[in-house]
Amino acid sequence: MSRQWALDNPEAVREKWRRQNAKRANAGPKWTSAQIAEIRRKLKDRCYYCGISLNGEGEIDHMVSLECGGTNAAENLTLACIPCNRQKGARSAEEFLLWLRADGRRVRRFTL
């Protein structure tokens, strides 16, 4: 969505945000810092997708996006570096990993 389109279509933008906020509200309770610490420990503080070290940073990512019906349940959460999280968008974790491989990008080798 371009800035100009958004300026020209304020009702459509409001509707988009209304739908997005409804999905967030239906996703369940927000995660806890203990849940994120456990995910970080399991991933050895590395991005779930590319494996780069997060150094205590990174972003919480929904493996199945809220857009596609995912929830805030701990088993649907992972940690990702900012570039991976931005590129993933609404794709599932599996779809994104396949896309990274097909694009010749670095993909994490791991077992959890």
Question: What's this entry about, in short?
Answer:
Helix content is 44%, strand content 7%.
As residue ranges, the low-confidence spans are: none
Oligomer: single chain
- Let me know the average pLDDT: 88
Helix/sheet category: mainly alpha
Strand content: 5-15%
Q: Which architecture of the domain at 31-102 would the CATH scheme give at its second level?
A: 2-Layer Sandwich
**Helix content class:** 40-55%
Provide an overview of this structure.
The chain is mostly helical. The chain has a domain at 31-102: Herpes Virus-1 (2-Layer Sandwich). Helices cover 44% and strands 7% of the residues. It is built from five helices and two strands. Strands 1-2 form a two-stranded antiparallel sheet. It starts with a helix and ends in a 10-residue tail after the last helix. The model has no long low-confidence stretch (mean pLDDT 88).
Secondary-structure topology with pairs:
Blueprint lengths: L2 H6 L1 H16 L7 H10 L16 E4 L14 E4 L1 H7 L4 H10 L10
Antiparallel strand pairs: 1-2
Record keyword descriptors for this entry.
112 residues; 5 helices; mainly alpha; 44% helix; Herpes Virus-1; 2 strands
